[in-house]
Specification:
Largest interface: A-B, 77 and 77 residues
Strand content of chain A: under 5%
Number of strands of chain A: 0
Subcellular location (chains A, B): Membrane
Oligomer: homodimer
Number of helices of chain A: 20
Order of helices and strands of chain A: HHHHHHHHHHHHHHHHHHHH
Shape of chain A: globular
Biased composition (Acidic residues) (chains A, B): 441-450
Number of domains of chain A: 2
CATH architecture of the largest domain in chain A: Up-down Bundle
GO molecular function, one term (chains A, B): antiporter activity
Structural class of chain A: mainly alpha
Organism (chains A, B): Parasynechococcus marenigrum (strain WH8102)
CATH topology of the largest domain in chain A: Na+/H+ antiporter like fold
Region (Disordered) (chains A, B): 439-458
CATH class of the largest domain in chain A: Mainly Alpha
Radius of gyration of chain A: 22 Å
Helix content of chain A: over 70%
């Protein structure tokens, strides 16, 4: 670790002890909080990812100030400083500086969790199942992406006079359904193998792809700060091409990938091979002006048809389990809930915007359920409700938008509440609707979805 | 990520792109180099860990300058700066600063790999097998720790006039045999279940414990810079107590740990539970003045009798596979080989010291083989040679010693060469000695050792 010169009056040993204590304590706090809340929520049959978010809010900038990202400018808890300072023999008022100094390491670990999670999401995309319900799923996905994106963006600009770049970003954050949460709720109710279940999963895979393409374009655009047509077209073309190439490679290049991996004789070859693919794909995506996150997802798509897929999945899952938790908790920790304090008149507009986004997020996806066509009987409400939870992809939007400083605090909170609200509502409403109707055709759950595919992540 | 104010003339988007590219490229370079060398060595039936070290030397401060820890003060390769600068539209001469700024994240990931590796080493300690060959193993372990430690420390002080703290540290670095490498060589030769194999594994577990206790004491002491009796006694007592408590807990507390883990209903509970145990143990070790590394090892000992041990092992192995590689490559990358350039007269003393340490490291452990007593026939040379490889524990000494700036560049290289030399020599010599003698009593390899227990790490 680098010793900042300004702390030269502190012995380098005490400094290192303090750094180790801060790192370990931060890690322990994240996991104790995330696990406690996740265990609570799982007992109410709610997605554990909500627990990780709430854990972040509780120990973060809006709560106990134990986990405070430096960019929030929030003062670290005095208890934390006193404990670490006391043990390491360093004046407690020096602790916040060491804390901030070493925060980049936690963000690096969190990014690693994010990229691993996106890789796993791509890896678990059932492209073949998708083709079976292709037309229906495509129709639901497109309506479910276009509607919330258009309504959200135009509404935020027209009604609330939000800056166009921010409005587009917030609109885009409502596009992608969480495959993991949807699949686990349907699986648990025995509805995964029904026509509705298959359409929802297919549409969720497709809108992940559409959503992550939009994300890649929006973040790159917004970084420029202006909205010109030429770069938008250029980025959209690049992003679509990138995903198309990944999809083609997933059909064609998997044998080559498998051949390379089979040549590796030293232990751990499949995992290292996968992370090299992940790294190369992130590098290419970044180099052509897209988000690294898109590269991670595309790498997962490419590996999804590998014959080693299940082994890769087994090796990546614990990595996601540890580090994606850090990502979700950090997202919650960075939120400033004071901007929606209802007793503060100036904060009310943020609350109204949050309400608007929540409504659009629900209406957009429920209406998408009616995009199912054809003669077969389909419960369109079930399809619509199944598309509700935004979960991890919504949070990836939020995390990247916050990191790129694209969003006002009010919009950050609005996105957070939209994600929490839809992810909370979907299982509750689906259980109500499906309670009395046993699934019509068998409820055999395929192995892939028997457990929450995000098992590790929560 | 934090934007340093001094780079304000660069747009924050370009800065972030550069930061992402540097992070991803560094990661890809580490794994391409480590994997290539590991694949090469495994074809000569040599331990892959040697490949990871050499990979670090090749891309590091003594080689291509692609992976340069900031503390080495070595200039980053111009090729690296030009590639990243070109893609991110940043002047190449600004790249080294961003590179150094973000190096802490890589070191954090490397520490995570180190702690996970030590946890896994503790977890895989076969305490019951140890008891079976207890007295013999204990005798070999003690002689094999005391002899190199005493000969090394006294020789370095007496013959080469090395500073006492450095001499003690270098002596201590020769104490611990690598369980992983030894077990994999014996396993491969079908000798693991022989009397010799069992004694060596038992002694390797014991000298790991002794070695890590010595490490915890020496690093803490050396940080103070002085050698007084009172703090030495205090630290030795603390370290021994800490390990004894961990050993007692491994017999008594595993049911409690299992009970807690069994209550966890959200997915991933065993892994999170293990890392919380790891975090808490590292925190306590650091808080009472010992090394966090000892805490990580002790946590593994505690979990080693858990009924979930195999599941925990399966989940931790991929994490070690990715991140311990980063640790080993970074150790190699930080080495300055110019200090042993034989054509430079002032560098010759470093080479002589390296030769001396190599010799002591071999003699100390081979003689320890003759510490086997009792009426049963035992091939004492096989036991001695089996104890040779210092592998990962030697490197942990080196990594921590370098990080704490305890060692002169010459001693760092001497330790590196001692580790490389013994780890290279052991499998070669053992194969020569054992070539014509099939094992006497069965060569059934227990499941735990059928594969390299460090499988993930290499």
């Amino acid at each position: 670790m680098l010793l900042p010169a300004l702390l030269s009056e502190i012995s380098s040993h005490d400094f290192e002890v303090a750094e180790t204590l801060i790192g370990v304590l931060r890690f322990v706090l994240i996991f104790v909080a995330a696990r406690s809340l996740a265990e609570l929520l799982v007992r109410f049959e709610l997605p554990t990812i909500l627990g990780e978010l709430l854990a972040g809010v509780i120990i973060g900038a809006s709560g106990l100030h134990l986990l405070v990202p430096p960019e929030t400018q929030v003062q670290l808890s005095g208890v934390f400083s006193n404990v670490v300072g006391g043990i390491a023999h360093i004046p407690p008022d020096e602790i916040p500086e060491i804390y901030n100094e070493s925060f980049g390491a936690l963000q690096a670990v969190s990014n690693l969790g994010l990229f691993s999670l996106l890789f796993l999401t791509g890896l678990e995309s059932e492209l073949e199942e998708l083709i079976a319900v292709g037309a229906q799923a495509f129709s639901v996905a497109v309506v479910g992406v276009v509607l919330p994106f258009a309504l959200g963006t135009l509404g935020l600009m027209g009604i609330f006079h939000v800056d166009p770049v921010q409005a587009i970003f917030a609109g885009a954050s409502m596009t992608a359904t969480s495959i993991g949460i949807t699949a686990s709720v349907f699986g648990e109710l025995g509805y995964l193998r029904t026509r509705e279940g298959q359409i929802v999963i297919g549409a969720a895979v497709l809108d992940d792809i559409l959503g992550i393409v939009i994300l890649a374009v929006v973040v790159s655009l917004a970084a420029g700060g202006t909205l010109e047509i030429a770069p938008i077209v250029q980025l959209v073309v690049a992003a679509v091409l990138f995903v198309v190439v990944a999809l083609v490679l997933s059909q064609k290049a998997a044998p080559a990938f498998d051949w390379v991996v089979d040549q590796l004789k030293a232990p751990g070859g499949k995992l290292i091979g996968s992370y090299l693919l992940l790294g190369a794909s992130c590098f290419i995506a970044t180099a052509i002006g897209l988000e690294a996150a898109l590269g991670a997802f595309a790498a997962g798509l490419i590996a999804s048809t590998s014959k080693h897929r299940h082994e890769i999945q087994a090796a990546v899952t614990p990595i996601v389990g540890l580090f994606a938790t850090v990502f979700f908790v950090l997202v919650g920790a960075g939120m400033d809930l004071s901007v929606i304090n209802p007793s503060d008149p100036s904060a009310r507009s943020a609350l109204v915007i949050a309400g608007f986004m929540f409504l659009v997020a629900i209406v957009g996806k429920v209406v998408a359920g009616w995009a199912v066509f054809g003669p077969q009987k389909t419960n369109k409400l079930v399809v619509g409700l199944g598309m509700l939870p935004r979960g991890e992809v919504g949070l990836i939007f939020l995390g990247l938008g916050t990191a790129a400083k694209l969003l006002s605090p009010g919009l950050e909170i609005a996105i957070l509440l939209m994600v929490i609200g839809t992810t909370f509502l979907a299982p509750v409403l689906l259980r109500l609707v499906l309670k009395d109707k046993p699934p019509e055709d068998g409820n055999e759950v395929p192995e892939e979805f028997a457990a929450d595919p995000l098992a590790g992540a929560s």
